[in-house]
Design goal:
Two copies of one chain form a homodimer. By secondary structure, the first copy, chain A, is α/β, with parallel strands linked by helices. Chain A has two domains: 185 residues, Alpha-Beta Complex (inorganic pyrophosphatase (n-terminal core)), CATH 3.90.1640; 112 residues, Roll (Diaminopimelate Epimerase, Chain A, domain 1), CATH 3.10.310. Helix content of chain A is 40%, strand content 20%. In chain A, the strands form two sheets. Chain A has a six-stranded parallel sheet. In chain A, strand 7 and strand 8 form a beta hairpin. In chain A, helix 1 packs parallel to helix 3 and helix 1 packs antiparallel against helix 4. Chain A is globular. Chains A and B meet through strand 6 and helix 11 of A and strand 6 and helix 11 of B.
């Protein structure tokens, strides 16, 4: 019997990579034969967190084999998961997203909670199973919470995330605010990134009604680092829309200091997407004041607006 | 704001009815404004349990309104749920079935575990939330576990179900084996049922690949109580298949004393269904030795066999 693979979504972010490592640790403590793996490159922010707490990135896999036993963390929608997931056996899911395009033929352990971060749920699972959280594992969970909640400022952030963050910072022996800002800035450093890189860094596929869309998000300290190259960006998005037969590519740049976003939308549903936010496309941009959360402030709006 | 409705599946069984009552109780203890309701008639077995522990059946509802806030127990597939569920807001799901044909636009609390009964999960939730289980609520949960596991004999029954059952019997102040058998026998008393009643008593809709199917199950002490009227039964199933455009009606009679089942299948996929079990249709019947669980021994086989 091969090991059970634990992994998060494609184009992995900090919550996805660390949650795979953390949940694999917990399952191992409970006697399971599991391995954390990843479906894509580790971004700068995650690399910063892994280095800080002394972890290597999990092994990269291309897809999963038919019949393989897997545990999904930080996602459930099959189009965001590993190649071949439809033919795998999903044993467990630990997630904090909407549920869609997911199905199994057998009962499973599925634990989703409407909190800001998968790590907040994992922290509970350590307690429920009576397993102590080591300092370096606490550091990974704290990193995930800081990343997903933009240092507790996102509207997705719940009291449970704040409490878990405080608890975990203590165990990890770091100052959450200081460490967190350093980590976010490492992630928002786009100087070594091409526009192609930015397109896939944190892109997720969605189906909104009959429409096929990609919603990508990048964090920046200065949004002009990205949008200064708008013409080139639109050309790349247009190509991606054509290549992948999309109805919409919704590319969001989030200002992590001011907690606002600006989007560039391409595809037949671009106007409709702007309208869904009660906004207009001005100079090719859609202003999204106060919007920082794809999950809570973007996906539900597009789901309703494009159906 | 109207109350949040808590309900189980159509053609309710004991786990569905009692789980709605029990989870509504827990949520009320936690300060939520919720009401348990039901989507269909209460069967004889459930009526026996409700009377034993002093409960009225929950209010019957036809469907839910657009935007209504709901909590689903003991199911997640929309075709097994309330009319209008697609337009409702599902806040939570507590379930122990496979996940399919379920989706939301927002994150939610979704707790599914591969155990024999929803009540086993609810018993944990009382503990996790630090709420004491009253004796009558314990009686309802015990009834659900006995029903879903056929007195701990079904292959769906896990150690967790056995442990919860023992714990709850103690709190409820009853002997699990003695009370359980009396309850199962009350449910298997088919003397006041027409064949039409039996068809819908515990029927659930499924999609197996491209095929639309209904899988119904009735418990009996003597299967000839039902199959003695086989010709009439086949005529009814045939009409149901035509009326509802089904590819398969798979009607299962389970012998609760010997823990075997016999099925009658009607529709274009009837032969394929028998073949999925490595069986043949003999005198219009498919023998299913050792099969008692729709979830674990029937649905997965049909899912694989008809895809």
């Amino acid at each position: 019997m091969s090991k059970v693979l634990v992994f998060g979504h494609q184009n992995p972010d900090t919550d996805t990579i660390t949650s795979a490592l953390v949940y694999a640790h917990l399952k191992q403590q409970l006697g399971a034969d599991v391995e954390a793996v990843r479906l894509g490159e580790v971004n700068n922010e995650t690399a910063f967190a892994l280095e800080k707490f002394g972890f290597e990135a999990p092994r990269l896999v291309e897809g999963v084999e038919a019949g393989a036993e897997v545990i999904l963390v930080d996602h459930n929608e099959f189009q965001q998961s590993a190649k071949g997931i439809e033919e795998a056996r999903v044993l467990e899911v630990i997630d904090h997203h909407r549920i869609a395009n997911f199905q199994t033929s057998d009962p499973l352990y599925f634990r989703a909670e409407p909190v800001g971060c998968t790590a907040t749920i994992l922290n509970k699972l350590y307690k429920e199973n009576g397993v102590e959280v080591p300092a370096n594992i606490a550091g990974l969970m704290l990193s995930a919470i800081v990343s997903d909640t933009l240092l507790f400022k996102s509207p997705t952030c719940t009291d449970q995330d704040v409490q878990a963050g405080e608890e975990l910072a203590k165990i990890a022996g770091v100052d959450a605010a200081e460490y967190g800002l350093a980590m976010l800035k490492a992630g928002a450093d786009l100087s070594d990134k091409s526009l192609e890189d930015l397109l896939s860094l944190d892109a997720k596929g969605f189906e909104f009604g009959a429409y096929k869309a990609t919603v990508a998000q990048v964090n920046a300290v200065d949004i002009e680092d990205v949008l200064g190259r708008q013409e080139e960006l639109v050309a790349l998005l247009t190509k991606d829309v054509a290549d992948n037969n999309l109805d919409l590519f919704f590319f969001v740049v989030t200002d992590i200091l001011n907690n606002d976003s600006t989007a560039v939308a391409v595809g037949a549903q671009a106007e409709a997407a702007a309208k869904a936010f009660g906004a207009e496309i001005v100079d090719g941009r859609i202003a999204l004041p106060g919007v920082v959360s794809r999950k809570k402030q973007i996906v539900p709006v597009l789901t309703d607006g494009l159906k």
